[in-house]
Structure formats: C-alpha cells, structure tokens
Specification:
226 residues
C-alpha cells in the first residue's frame, strides 16, 4: 500500500494505517479488516506473472503482494515502489526471510515514469489510489500508462464504487481514517473513467469484494498496441 497524498505544495507521506506509530500493525490490520487473503490471491491470479515478465508493484507497502507474485513465478522480474521508508524496511526483511531478490525503490506514486526507465509488461497496484487526491490519481495513471509497454496490463485493486448502503456505511471507517477528499472519488466510482481518460483500453471492473471496510474492486486495463 502506497501512502502518499497531495499535501498542498508538496506531497506528504501518510503513515500506514493513517497514524504514526501504527506501521507495525499494518499487516495484521489489513488481514483482519479487508479479507486480504481473498483479494490478494484473486489479484495475483489475474496478474498471472510469466517467466519473462517485468512487473511493478506500485505502492508495494510491506511487500506481501510482491512476494506472492515472485512465488508464483520465480523467474519474473518484480519491482516494488513505495515512498514510506518504514514499510520498505519491513518489506526488505520479509523478502530476506523468504530468500527472494526483489528490487525496491523509495518513490512516490507520481514518479513511476521516472523510476521505470524501460517499459514493463505489467503494473499492479493495491489499496493505493484511495490515498491520492483526484489530480494525483490522474497524474499517476498517466505515469503508469507511460511506464507500460504497448499491450501491457494494469491490474488495480482498491476501494471502488460503494454500491450499497451497507458498503457505504462501512467505508466511512476508511474515509474517517484516510480523509474524505481522497476517498470519496473512489466511492463514487471514478477510477474506470480516469483510466479511460489516461489512454487505457479494455477497462473493466472484473469483480468486487465486500469487506468489513467497504467494497474492494478489481480493475483491469491495457495500454493500446498503437
């Protein structure tokens, strides 16, 4: 999970779980509140890493998804980006314990086109975009588009359109913690349109998963071949 937001003139890092001192509990909280095992496995299956794939995990957080992708395909080249040094430290320790080599970069969401010099095959992002101001969502999607090779795929999992009164009510917990300005566009279902505006084609909401903190949507899109 990348924790960046538009904080006025400069971007600021929002600590994991939205508060300083809680990063140590992030993995436990996400597992408890979001049905993490379910959505991470569904996302990893959709990405379906191949042996020649170069894949960026944008907002890799503590590295859980990056490790999962590497386990599915040890030959794939996995790169993790996140601006929070504390979560990257946790990620490095987890990767060392797993005996995996995964490149990690401290970078803001909007820097992906700068960090990724050579186009990649796939970009995955989970629980990142609800932290970003609308303008930052747009800029990040354009950066992702630039970083992908023609035909490359974007696999984005995040809180999306909250379709029922129950899901909207549950999502209020996330909004109270992370801020209404960044989260409300997600709840209103803005992400697919933003992907189209960034140039992606084949934009789909493949499925949605109800959780204790609202509905999490699975989006897929591709950069056109031409």
């Amino acid at each position: 999970m990348m924790v960046t937001s538009n904080g006025g003139d400069q971007d600021r890092i929002i600590p994991a779980l939205g508060r300083n001192g809680l990063t140590w509990a992030y993995d436990f909280a996400i597992a408890l509140a979001t049905r993490e095992h379910k959505w991470r496995n569904r996302l990893a299956a959709a990405v379906a890493p191949g042996p020649e794939d170069k894949i960026v995990d944008l907002g890799c957080g503590t590295g859980t998804l990056a490790i999962m992708l590497k386990r599915r395909q040890p030959q794939a080249h996995i790169i993790g980006l996140d601006p929070d040094p504390e979560v990257l430290l946790i990620a490095r320790r987890k990767m060392e314990r797993a005996g995996m080599i995964i490149e990690l970069f401290r970078a803001d969401a909007g820097q992906i086109a700068e960090i990724v010099k050579d186009p990649v095959d796939k970009i995955v992002s989970s629980l990142v975009f609800h932290h970003l101001a609308l303008e930052k969502k747009q800029a990040t999607l354009k950066g992702i588009f630039t970083a992908l090779r023609p035909g490359g795929g974007l696999y984005l999992t995040d809180y999306g359109l909250q379709r029922s009164r129950l899901m909207r009510s549950l999502f209020r917990v996330v909004q109270t913690l992370d801020g209404f300005e960044t989260t409300q566009p997600n709840a209103d279902g803005v992400l697919p349109q933003l992907m189209i505006e960034a140039g992606f084609e084949g934009v789909t909401e493949a499925s949605a998963l109800p959780t204790l903190t609202g509905s999490i949507s699975f989006y897929e899109a591709h950069r056109p071949w031409k």
